[in-house]
């Protein structure tokens, strides 16, 4: 039987105010005040959490673009990593350090002035990596240029081989179209499988779909899982996402995230999957090999007429099991820190 260890993860979910960087950092610091050194191995903050996300154009976001290492997000993360002696990941808008008229391969858009970036700090407060969002969402296109693609980090246990991605990276990379459950494309899932990723960290600013929109971050054409077999229609398990206290996760969003990672948990033959009415995301059970732990850290709140869906979660994807396994989840409007212990195979 394979040896296991425990990964302790902290997921910080709250509603920042757009453009109020220092106030948002103060709120994050307050939420983290109760954490003690070495109480977690990894602490996660969402995409662009301290600046806010829904900037309408390059001019509006320009004052908030940050320099790596010296900007407010990186300074705070380094300080927190040293205090807690843990890894800290967070998203921020990075200032482009050279003049650029490139469109990053995206036609009919203005010159880029930055990257949508995630940073990871070590327990000693040293920067380990800058990952730049590959699959830009429509809000990013007015100011950001895509990064160079997914990577993987070899980190000490309990983290292991780790991939960091940002929000819309989980969706189909345009101009591709998700038209087959079997074939995808599943860009992020295939990367994780190819590279032997054990831990996938998703830093999100994921929006809640309105009733007349597709259930995904974009309002594009592939909001429903295609096909008629395993995972049809994402097996919606709870259409009443507007619970009174906001402490229930948005099940449609969790199911969508799981379906976009389908190759990491699907049966090798889709005909082996029973077509029933059970929820796609279910409680963990059993054991197996080739596990992928997914940490999705999302934000809440409203900006620019849009609502962020929260529902930060930890999931276990076991190759060939036929179902993703929900380990932990936060509410759709919950502002808090989730502290989760997750079994990891060595």
UniProtKB/TrEMBL annotation:
<dbReference type="GO" id="GO:0070773">
    <property type="term" value="F:protein-N-terminal glutamine amidohydrolase activity"/>
</dbReference>
<protein>
    <submittedName>
        <fullName>Unplaced genomic scaffold scaffold_31, whole genome shotgun sequence</fullName>
    </submittedName>
</protein>
<dbReference type="InterPro" id="IPR003010">
    <property type="entry name" value="C-N_Hydrolase"/>
</dbReference>
<dbReference type="InterPro" id="IPR039703">
    <property type="entry name" value="Nta1"/>
</dbReference>
<dbReference type="GO" id="GO:0008418">
    <property type="term" value="F:protein-N-terminal asparagine amidohydrolase activity"/>
</dbReference>
<dbReference type="Pfam" id="PF00795">
    <property type="entry name" value="CN_hydrolase"/>
</dbReference>
<dbReference type="GO" id="GO:0030163">
    <property type="term" value="P:protein catabolic process"/>
</dbReference>
<feature type="compositionally biased region" description="Acidic residues">
    <location>
        <begin position="227"/>
        <end position="247"/>
    </location>
</feature>
<feature type="region of interest" description="Disordered">
    <location>
        <begin position="211"/>
        <end position="249"/>
    </location>
</feature>
<feature type="domain" description="CN hydrolase">
    <location>
        <begin position="7"/>
        <end position="344"/>
    </location>
</feature>
<dbReference type="InterPro" id="IPR036526">
    <property type="entry name" value="C-N_Hydrolase_sf"/>
</dbReference>
């Amino acid at each position: 039987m394979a040896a296991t260890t425990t990964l302790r993860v902290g997921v910080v979910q709250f509603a920042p105010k757009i453009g109020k960087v220092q106030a948002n950092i103060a709120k994050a610091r307050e939420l983290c005040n109760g954490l003690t050194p070495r109480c977690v191995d990894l602490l996660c903050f969402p995409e662009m959490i301290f600046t806010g996300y829904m900037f309408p154009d390059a001019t509006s976001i320009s004052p908030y673009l940050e320099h790596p290492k010296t900007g407010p997000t990186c300074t705070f993360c380094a300080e927190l990593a040293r205090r807690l002696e843990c890894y800290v990941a967070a998203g921020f808008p990075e200032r482009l350090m050279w003049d650029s008229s490139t469109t990053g391969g995206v036609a009919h858009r203005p010159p880029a002035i930055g990257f949508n970036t995630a940073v990871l700090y070590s327990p000693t407060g040293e920067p380990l990596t800058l990952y730049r969002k590959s699959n830009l969402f429509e809000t990013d296109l007015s100011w950001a240029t895509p990064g160079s693609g997914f990577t993987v980090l070899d980190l000490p246990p309990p983290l292991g081989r780790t991939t960091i991605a940002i929000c819309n990276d989980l969706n189909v990379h345009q101009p591709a179209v998700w038209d087959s459950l079997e074939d995808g494309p599943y860009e992020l899932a295939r990367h994780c499988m190819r590279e032997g990723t054990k831990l996938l960290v998703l830093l999100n600013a994921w929006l809640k779909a309105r009733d007349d929109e597709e259930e995904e971050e974009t309002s594009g054409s592939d909001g429903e899982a295609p096909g008629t077999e395993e995972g049809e229609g994402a097996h919606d398990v709870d259409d009443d996402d507007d619970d009174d206290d906001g402490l229930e996760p948005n099940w449609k969003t969790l199911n969508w995230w799981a379906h976009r990672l389908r190759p990491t948990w699907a049966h090798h033959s889709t005909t082996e999957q029973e077509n029933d009415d059970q929820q796609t995301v279910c409680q963990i059970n059993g054991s197996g090999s080739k596990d992928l732990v997914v940490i999705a850290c999302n934000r809440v709140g409203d900006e620019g007429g849009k609502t962020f869906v929260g529902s930060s979660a930890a999931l276990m994807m076991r190759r060939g099991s036929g179902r993703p396994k929900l380990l932990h989840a936060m509410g759709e409007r919950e502002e808090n820190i989730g502290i989760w212990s997750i079994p990891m195979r060595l």
